[in-house]
Amino acid sequence: MSDCLFCKIVGGEIPCKKVYEDDTIFAFEDITPQAPTHILIIPKDHFASLKEVPGTKKDLLGHILLKARGLAQEAGLDESGFRIVLNTGRDSGQAVFHIHFHLLGGRRMTWPPG
Ligand code: AMP
Ligand code: ZN
């Protein structure tokens, strides 16, 4: 999508601190980190949120989740733990409407979230 911030990041039009890329997914550091490790993992294809991802995309969603786990391990979070967040829609606080998984770690987090 031409006016989507994260599509522009994938396309290189807007700079980012890239963490990982392959044919289908892209990961980069969040510009306003909420924890010592805060990485966003996204599909290269545009889907506004989880609601818009077709049921045929199970492999893509699984790939993102397992890559998030791998990036957490690479960041040294295996033992201390980490949180993966997928905000969906208004009440969740979703601000960017290109689906993105947050990988957060490196500090103790609270539950329930705010
Ligand atoms: P959400 O509230 O789940 O939609 O999260 C959107 C996230 O995108 C926030 O954590 C922002 O800090 C992050 N963000 C917004 N603009 C950029 C950008 N240009 N580069 C990296 N992260 C961004
Ligand atoms: Zn997009």
User: Which ions, cofactors or small ligands are bound in this entry?
Assistant: adenosine monophosphate, zinc ion
Helix percent reads: 10-25%
**How many strand segments?**
5
Strand content: 15-25%
The average pLDDT is 97
CATH class: Alpha Beta
Query: What is the chain-wise order of helices and strands?
Result: HEEEHEE
Number of separate domains: 1
Radius of gyration: 14 Å
Short summary of the structure?
The protein has 114 residues and is α+β, with helices and mostly antiparallel strands.
Describe the fold and architecture:
It is a single chain. This protein has 114 residues and is an alpha+beta fold. It has a single domain (5-105), classed as HIT-like (HIT family, subunit A, 2-Layer Sandwich), CATH 3.30.428.10. The protein has helices spanning 5-10, 58-74; strands at residues 18-21, 25-29, 37-43, 82-85, 101-105. A five-stranded antiparallel beta sheet has the order 1-2-3-5-4, covered by helices on one side. The protein is globular, with a radius of gyration of 14 Å.
